[in-house]
Task: inverse folding
């Protein structure tokens, strides 16, 4: 063991105990080096010693991979991931940290740190209130609690034990997030002032090699934009699976999460554990980077207890508890009803997916839970691992449970692995399924799987003020639907004797943009040729998206009689698979409205004497669209 004195910027000195070269007496090289760092309160978690099959063992940001730094002489080669805090051993100065340094990066019971100013509040990851999960940003927690402002300043950090149920509180411009459980916590108070300036860069004992520079803290990644899905992994935490297979299960889920390409604009994932009482371990909104998701998966504890006794052994002495046999169905129903909410981070227009892991045999209630999931628009995938052993077969009431629980019985939503060993080769095929949003049949609802074109009468008899009421009618219908690049799509055409495409289905993919452009449509004024307008819309608006999987609807709003035939063009639209709702105002003939409307006529044709009477028809049209959509899915 050798000693090295390092000057401390004029503030003092620090003695570092360094491991001797390989072959020297005493403890092993890594052990003595780790002991030295731990004695200083510094983390050794970022130093990779050997390979680890779990994905979180190599879950550093790409910027850190290979960014080697020069360790003290005689020490093993290390990466800078955890070499954060030289100033920990200084007695007179707080530690300068970055905006994103987390509580888990500091391994002392008490530490004074210095937060930089100007950190972006919206990028802080904070979990809890007063007591924060150690995965939280220290500076973010300090701002959240009011210890410092966003101008930065000294903070004192106190390490605390882990806990359950970190609360979500909006304070000082930061919305903290809920977290069901974490292994360590911390709290913050006002720290001691210092003359040291916080630069936002951590101070390190290591020096980068010549010609290399350490990368800055990476920004939040957008993720895989071609894989937009909100995914809940429903893992088995019952006594059936045991601690060992539970860990292998987590390992596999981590590999899948890593390959998905998690990011702000890519897939979001959460995790639910099935045990005596289903528990949501973390929500979709909690983590938007693969690294944080992997840490969270690693932290999930086995709720079934420490028993590793398999079900066959338990059955030899007693009957498996009926509550335990209902775990999967109960947990799936709980996930479908409670997990996919706006408050939990679900996104509109994005497919909702539950991946259910079943080791051996499921409960007899899983079919009913699958029905509930489909009613909530959730795509259920079943990943079955191994097959029921002979002793279990007597309790499997329906061997076709997979076909009845999944979203569709077409082979796409079921996946089988022979056991939990050597599962790497099964990761990519499962990820490809989860990213195939066009096949997520159960996510298709009337709100996110329709194309609606509005054909708006701009003739002289309408007038500008009434034309505005027509646009309001159109907006109130459009804003009900989940408009996105993979969801509902809206288009609008205005007509007189001529036709003008105000915007097509592919022009705008957000609700905000669609509503804005509807408000700004200019009134044309002129005659009324509704038949020509229908033909124009079928050809120029619906024609380019004829391969779309969405169901097509045309809503016609007119105030008078057409100067041309409407029956022929409307019949052609019906033959093209377009459902027509006709809405007449004032002088619009009832016969024309019925000729244009789809069958049954009485539920697809509407009339009001006044333009102000359009508002009550909004809900009728929306209900009609949803009714027709559901009938088309039968």
Result:
């Amino acid at each position: 063991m050798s000693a090295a004195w390092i000057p401390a910027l004029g503030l003092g000195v620090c003695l570092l105990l360094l491991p001797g070269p390989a072959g020297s007496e005493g403890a092993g090289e890594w052990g003595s080096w780790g002991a030295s760092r731990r004695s200083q309160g510094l983390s050794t978690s970022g130093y990779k010693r050997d390979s680890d099959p779990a994905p979180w063992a190599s879950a550093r940001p790409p910027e850190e991979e290979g960014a080697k730094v020069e360790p003290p002489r005689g020490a093993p080669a290390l990466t800078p991931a955890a070499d954060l805090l030289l100033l920990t051993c200084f007695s007179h100065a707080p530690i300068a940290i970055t905006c994103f340094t987390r509580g888990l990066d500091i391994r002392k019971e008490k530490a004074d740190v210095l937060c930089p100013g100007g950190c972006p509040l919206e990028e802080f990851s904070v979990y809890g209130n007063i007591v924060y999960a150690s995965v939280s940003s220290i500076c973010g927690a300090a701002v959240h609690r009011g210890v410092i402002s966003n101008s930065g300043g000294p903070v004192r950090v106190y390490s605390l034990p882990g806990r359950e149920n970190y609360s979500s509180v909006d304070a000082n411009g930061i919305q903290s997030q809920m977290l069901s459980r974490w292994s360590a916590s911390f709290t913050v108070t006002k720290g001691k002032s210092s003359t040291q300036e916080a630069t936002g860069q951590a101070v390190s004992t290591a020096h980068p090699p010549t010609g290399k520079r350490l990368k800055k803290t990476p920004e939040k990644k957008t993720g895989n934009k071609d894989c937009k899905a909100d995914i809940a992994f429903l893992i088995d935490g019952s006594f059936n699976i045991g601690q060992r297979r539970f860990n292998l299960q987590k390992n596999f889920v981590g590999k899948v999460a890593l390959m998905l390409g998690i990011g702000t604009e890519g897939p979001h994932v959460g995790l639910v554990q099935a045990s005596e009482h289903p528990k949501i371990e973390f929500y979709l909104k909690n983590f938007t980077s693969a690294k944080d998701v992997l840490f969270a998966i690693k932290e999930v504890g086995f709720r079934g207890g420490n028993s590793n006794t398999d079900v066959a052994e338990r059955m030899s002495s007693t009957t498996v508890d009926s509550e335990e046999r209902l775990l999967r169905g109960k947990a799936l129903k709980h996930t479908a009803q409670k997990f996919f909410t706006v408050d939990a981070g679900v996104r509109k227009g994005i497919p909702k997916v539950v991946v259910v892991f079943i080791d051996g045999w499921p409960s007899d209630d899983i079919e009913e839970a699958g029905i509930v999931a489909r009613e909530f628009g959730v795509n259920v995938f079943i990943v079955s691992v191994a097959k029921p052993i002979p002793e279990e077969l007597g309790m499997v009431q329906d061997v076709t449970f997979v076909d009845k629980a999944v979203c569709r019985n077409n082979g796409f939503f079921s996946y089988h692995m022979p056991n939990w060993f050597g599962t790497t080769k099964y990761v990519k095929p499962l990820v490809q399924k989860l990213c195939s949003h066009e096949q997520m049949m159960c996510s298709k609802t009337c709100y996110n799987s329709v194309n609606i074109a509005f054909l708006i009468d701009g003739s002289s008899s309408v007038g500008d003020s009434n034309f505005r009421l027509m646009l309001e009618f159109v907006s109130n219908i459009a804003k009900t639907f989940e408009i996105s690049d993979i969801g509902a799509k809206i288009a609008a055409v205005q007509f007189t004797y001529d036709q003008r495409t105000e915007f097509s289905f592919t022009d705008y993919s957000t609700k905000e943009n669609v509503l804005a452009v509807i408000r700004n449509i200019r009134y044309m004024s002129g005659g009324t040729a509704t038949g020509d307008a229908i033909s124009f819309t079928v050809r120029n608006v619906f024609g380019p998206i004829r391969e779309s999987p969405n169901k097509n609807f045309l809503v016609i709003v007119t105030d008078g009689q057409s100067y041309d035939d409407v029956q022929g063009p409307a019949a052609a639209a019906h033959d093209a698979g377009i459902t027509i709702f006709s809405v007449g105002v004032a002088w619009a003939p009832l016969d024309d409205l019925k000729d244009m409307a789809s069958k049954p006529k009485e539920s697809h044709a509407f009339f009001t004497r006044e333009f102000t009477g359009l508002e009550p028809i909004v809900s009728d049209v929306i209900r009609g669209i949803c009714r027709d959509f559901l009938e088309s899915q039968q």
Residues 167 and 454 are 45 Å apart (CA to CA). Confidence is low (pLDDT under 50) at residues 1-52, 58-91, 195-218, 305-326. The first strand starts at residue 2 and ends at 7.
